[in-house]
């Protein structure tokens, strides 16, 4: 009997000691996100900031990035809007004489953009724009924004669009500037293709932009296409 008691007491004592020295683990918690100042919430094109703008910013203001890695990473609401709801997606008959097609790509990232414009020969203005883009969200947003920007412009005005204007409006980060360059190349390529089909049309100066005029290959399309 004494042997049995002696054998059980150390076990009970060890369990009591383990319970006594077992550290307590505090419940995990996440620190609250730091407040974002009004200056960082505002789109660069705006100069007047009110409290209502910060609390309920309109679509042209800065908003926190949906997939941000930190609370300090912000993206423009215009970019998110054009990415989630792209405008003027589609294509036209490339064989039509009043349609100019631009097909450009960025080998570095694999983005491919096709932009088509329909030109009114009476006043040389762009009456319709369509695009199809295979690429990242910034490339899609750049394409969508460009279609709204050039619609109604003359070929002269559209040919002078700079990629820096697109990047500024969409708040593109430096690593995504090539997407705005791709959009600029696309509109210039479409204009050049239109002039290839219409050699007697009034020429447009495509200078003044940051990207060189891309080479355009015109496909021969049968009348049945």
Automatic annotation (TrEMBL):
Q: Which GO terms describe its cellular component?
A: mitochondrial matrix
Report the principal subcellular site: mitochondrion
**Which pathway features in its UniProt record?**
Cofactor biosynthesis; iron-sulfur cluster biosynthesis
Q: Which SUPFAM superfamilies match?
A: SufE/NifU
* GO molecular function annotation: 2 iron, 2 sulfur cluster binding; iron ion binding
Annotated NCBIfam families = iscU (TIGR01999)
Protein name, as recorded: Iron-sulfur cluster assembly protein
Name the lineage: Eukaryota, Fungi, Dikarya, Ascomycota, Pezizomycotina
């Amino acid at each position: 009997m004494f042997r049995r008691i002696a054998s059980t007491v150390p076990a009970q004592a060890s369990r009591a000691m383990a319970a006594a020295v077992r550290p307590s683990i505090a419940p995990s918690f996440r620190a609250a996100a730091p407040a974002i100042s009004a200056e960082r919430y505002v789109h660069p094109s705006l100069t007047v900031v009110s409290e209502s703008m910060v609390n309920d910013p309109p679509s042209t203001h800065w908003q926190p990035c949906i997939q941000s890695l930190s609370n300090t990473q912000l993206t423009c609401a215009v970019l998110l809007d054009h990415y989630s709801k792209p405008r003027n997606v589609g294509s036209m008959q490339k064989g039509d004489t009043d349609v100019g097609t631009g097909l450009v790509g960025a080998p570095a990232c694999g983005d491919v953009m096709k932009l088509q414009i329909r030109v009114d020969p009476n006043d040389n203005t762009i009456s319709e724009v369509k695009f199809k883009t295979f690429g990242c969200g910034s490339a899609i947003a750049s394409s969508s924004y460009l279609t709204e920007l050039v619609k109604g412009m003359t070929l002269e005005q559209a040919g002078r669009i700079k990629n820096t204007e697109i990047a500024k409006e969409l708040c593109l980060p430096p690593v995504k500037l090539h997407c705005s360059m791709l959009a600029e190349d696309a509109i210039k390529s479409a204009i050049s293709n239109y002039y290839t089909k219409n050699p007697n049309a009034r020429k447009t100066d495509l200078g003044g932009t940051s990207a060189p005029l891309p080479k355009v290959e015109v496909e021969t399309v049968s009348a049945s296409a």
